[in-house]
TrEMBL record:
Pfam families: YCII
Taxonomic superkingdom: Bacteria
Signal peptide bounds: none
Protein name: YCII-related domain-containing protein
SUPFAM superfamilies membership: Dimeric alpha+beta barrel
Family indicated by similarity: Belongs to the YciI family.
Gene3D superfamilies: Dimeric alpha+beta barrel (3.30.70.1060)
Domain YCII-related stretches: 60-136
InterPro entries for this protein: Dimeric_a/b-barrel, YCII
Length: 145
């Protein structure tokens, strides 16, 4: 009987130690907001939330010149489609060789919609670009419709 009790006691002691030492921490990033469709609170009704997308160099930028050109053509077509749908208000590249490649400003219901639209971009799907989405507030009718 002792051969069954001793391992059970060790297991119980291990579980107590793990339980006592475990301290979950909240993630401090947009990913939590993205998963919940989070829209930050607004103090008054005079502000409107847009979604600022920072496009950054992706992990797969080693395509041939021809493949990269095809991806860029598809990327531009995606931008035109988003603009025609009214979801994309601003798009453009930065004029440097840094990691930050460009921006989008999207008019979406929430971050989930913004992330889904950006994930459909051929340059993101190919890994040439990665992105970060942040809420961006401005006075209604101040900058955009």
């Amino acid at each position: 009987m002792a051969s069954k009790v001793i391992p059970a006691l060790f297991l119980l002691a291990f579980l107590v130690i793990v339980t006592v030492s475990f301290h979950p921490a909240a993630l401090q990033s947009i990913s939590t907001a993205v998963l919940s469709g989070h829209r930050p609170p607004v103090a008054d009704g005079g502000m409107k939330c847009y979604w600022m997308v920072f496009l950054k160099g992706g992990p797969h930028r080693d395509q041939t010149a021809a493949a990269a050109a095809n991806i860029q053509t598809a990327h531009m077509q995606h931008i035109r489609q988003l603009a025609q749908s009214g979801k994309l208000l601003v798009a453009g590249p930065f004029g440097n060789d840094g990691d930050l490649k460009g921006i989008f400003i999207l008019d979406c219901r929430d971050s989930l919609e913004a992330v889904q639209l950006v994930k459909e971009d051929p340059a993101v799907r190919a890994g040439r670009l990665r992105f970060e989405v942040l809420p961006w507030w401005t006075e209604k009718n101040c900058v955009f419709k």
